[in-house]
Design goal:
27% of the residues lie in helices and 21% in strands. With 218 residues, it is of the alpha+beta class. The protein is elongated, with a radius of gyration of 21 Å. This is PhiE125 gp8 family phage protein.
Length: 218
């Protein structure tokens, strides 16, 4: 069964592999999708979330689930901010940027996974900036679960990377990733070695997702 986080479909991966869809193919799809999301530092599936972003007293903040579809509310110091005070117009939405039209956002930062303002470091502290918004792409997994959510808006290169990675995981099952060659009598086989710093099983998949890595200050 497809999950909302799945960046491709098991039936597509099975067709490329020349096998039938089974639980192992489905696990490879979910594992590949999770690995790509972790590498890119972002969730790709569309959802409505509340986030406590780091602002560092700048006029813009980077939200974790681009592209931004709708900003539902922004709270600053516990108070609801008027929607005319900020914008995601133009290229801002695609980049996940919420821009303040006058002044700067409060000086908040992430420390140890928490949002901190001055001496208080509780996640969601009243002085922290809280943004509720809808963002992300419509994934193949979401459409498979509910066709009314379509069409798929996930970039084609991300879906292709997920297919390549799922196929690589399927083919690599039961093989030690640190072994580059095996031989038994007259039989021998060599495997592609993972390059230094390579995080995905498929180097082609890693190249495809590279432009979608979300960089942010810690």
């Amino acid at each position: 069964m497809a999950r909302p986080t799945d960046l491709c479909l098991a039936v597509t991966v099975a067709a490329d592999l020349g096998v039938l869809v089974d639980p192992h193919v489905e696990r490879c799809v979910s594992a590949a999708s999770g690995a790509i999301a972790a590498l890119c530092g972002r969730a790709f599936e569309r959802a409505t979330v509340t986030e406590f972003p780091a602002s560092y007293a700048r006029p813009y903040v980077l939200l974790a689930r681009p592209p931004l579809v709708e900003v539902i509310s922004v709270r600053e110091g516990g108070e609801l901010l008027d929607a005319t005070a900020y914008t995601i117009a133009g290229d801002l939405a695609a980049g996940g940027l919420l821009y303040r039209l006058a002044g700067v956002w409060p000086e908040t930062a992430h420390v140890g996974g928490l949002v901190t303002l001055t001496v208080d470091s509780r996640q969601g502290h009243l002085g922290a900036l809280a943004v509720t918004y809808t963002g992300g792409f419509v994934t193949p997994g979401q459409v498979a679960g509910d066709a009314s959510l379509g069409p798929v808006t996930l970039p084609a290169e991300i879906e292709e990377a997920a297919i390549l990675e799922a196929c690589a995981l399927y083919r690599g099952r039961g093989r030690d990733a640190d072994v580059s060659a095996e031989s038994l009598g007259d039989w021998s086989v060599s495997y592609r070695e993972r390059g230094a710093g390579q995080r995905l099983a498929s180097p082609r998949a890693e190249l495809l997702v590279a432009p979608h890595v979300l960089w942010r200050a810690s």
